[in-house]
Design brief:
With 311 residues, this protein is of the alpha+beta class. The protein is 13% helix and 32% strand.
Length: 311
């Protein structure tokens, strides 16, 4: 009976199940979260030689897993002297160890040039019998590593106003970059806003200043924490999706001035104007009333003009 079944299977064209295809997936990239694994590697990450953990599945039962970079590295010609188009990566290559194998590579073992600016490299994992083999392979796996070592330019048109607890700050986004966030640097110790820590066009400081981060879609925000009656130097830098931090923008001066009480005192003294435009001119025109209410309004308007001139 068994022979009959085998013969019937052959007649009907039965074939053995195909072997599972070889695959490779990224399990981790440095300290990134799962949704950031395929984002470009930044200049800082590349210089730190961050590790990438790969999981190779269903590799053919050979002695080695060789790593190559380039184009069509699975072909014999691409790995043969004279027609060589791929580069062998000896520090990434390893012995095969089972149908599921986790392999850790780094920027250096993958021979990635951290000064290359923006690039994408394709890597091939080939199951082979010997090192640097030019044998034909029936199966292989591929993965890519994108490098973005080009930091975004500085924001422009940085402008600040005056306030007491919320000081307005606005800017124009740099062009040609995918901005993930902005870092705002506040030097509270800068005398007369002359900061030696914040220098336009220079890399941002990592200490000695307060750093506030806002979303990359923003072009304005408000500053807080500046002591009333004082000034602080302020600059901003852009951070792209890869984590590259750009140089500092121009440095501006943010002023925290007391605003509470002017209008209360003015109204309490009998004043009725709602803006500085209603204040009397040099000859007493431009509004009604006289005395203390107008003096208070005049003081408030004078302070506002001083702030505008300082900007």
């Amino acid at each position: 009976m068994r022979l009959v079944l085998v013969a019937a299977a052959l007649v009907l064209g039965w074939a053995a199940p195909a072997l599972a295809q070889m695959t490779v997936t990224k399990l981790s990239v440095g300290t990134r979260t799962a949704d950031e694994l395929d984002l470009p590697i930044s200049a800082e990450e590349c210089a730190a030689d961050i590790p990438i953990t790969l999981r190779v599945m269903n590799a053919a039962m050979t002695a080695r897993l060789d790593f190559w970079s380039g184009t069509s590295c699975n072909t014999v010609e691409s790995r043969t002297t004279g027609t060589l188009t791929c580069e062998y990566l000896p520090m990434a290559s390893t012995t095969r160890d089972g149908s599921q194998q986790d392999i850790v590579v780094t920027m250096s073992t993958l021979l990635i040039d951290c000064t290359a600016g923006t690039s994408t490299t394709t890597f091939f994992i080939l199951p082979v019998a010997t090192t640097m083999s030019t044998e034909m392979v029936s199966d292989f796996a591929m993965f890519t590593v994108a490098l973005d070592a080009q930091a975004p330019g500085p924001p422009t048109g940085l402008t600040t106003g005056a306030g007491e607890t919320a000081i307005p700050l606005s800017w124009t986004a740099p062009t040609g970059s995918d901005i993930h966030e902005y870092n705002i640097y506040i030097d509270d110790a800068a005398a007369d806003c002359a900061s030696t820590t914040l220098v336009a066009g220079s890399p941002p400081p990592t200490e000695g200043v307060r750093i506030v981060t806002v979303n990359g879609d923003a072009t304005e925000t408000t500053l807080s924490g500046i002591a009333t009656g004082t000034e602080a130097a302020v600059a901003i830098s852009a951070v792209d999706d890869a984590g590259n931090v750009g140089v500092l923008s121009e440095v501006v001066c943010a002023m925290s001035v007391p605003t509470e009480g002017f209008w209360d005192k003015y109204k309490g003294g009998g004043g009725s104007a709602s803006t500085c435009a209603a204040a009397p001119g040099p000859r007493g025109g431009g509004g009604s009333g006289s005395g203390a209410p107008w003096a208070l309004l005049g003081a408030a308007c004078a302070l506002a003009m001083r702030v505008r001139r300082h900007r």
